[in-house]
Amino acid sequence: MPVNPDLQGRIFPPTDPYLVGREKIREFARAVYATSAINYDPGAARAAGYPDVVAPPTFPVVVQELTLAQLLAEPDAGIDFTRVVHGDQKFSYTRPVVAGDELTATLTVSSIKTLGGNSMITAESTMVDADGQHVVTAISTLVVRGEG
Amino acid sequence: MNTTHAIDEGNSTNTGTPGGPSIADLNVGEVVAEQVYALSRDSLVRYAGASGDFNPIHYREDIALAAGLPGVLAHGMLTMGTAIQPVVDWIGDPGKVLDYQVRFTRPVPVDAGYGAIVTVVAKVGAVEGSSARIDLTVTYNEQTVLGKAQVRVTL
Question: CA-to-CA distance for A55 and A112, rounded, in angstroms?
Answer without folding.
Answer: 31
